[in-house]
Write a structure and sequence with these properties.
mainly beta; single chain; 3-stranded antiparallel sheet; 77 residues
């Protein structure tokens, strides 16, 4: 799952998911990698097991105000 966020942390059952990022999206061309200017603002959530996990996402700007939002994520078969 791709989430526009500055970061994330999984609580309790953190073995259910793997959090990768924050990342900056870019474009790969034959001679170079092109990256936009600005904050790294993408977090990838990869399911590793079935179950429920609570994840706090950090939203906003790396240089300004930030907010935290909590999501209960359920990984099913």
């Amino acid at each position: 799952m791709r989430v526009d966020a500055l970061g994330a942390i999984a609580h309790d059952r953190s073995d259910i998911v793997e959090i990768i990022g924050p990342l900056t999206l870019g474009t790969l061309v034959p001679t170079q990698v092109i990256l936009p200017e600005g904050d790294a603002g993408v977090v990838l959530i990869v399911a590793r097991k079935f179950g429920q996990v609570q994840i706090d996402f950090v939203l906003g700007s790396a240089w300004g105000p930030r907010q935290t939002r909590t999501v209960l994520l359920e990984v099913e078969d």
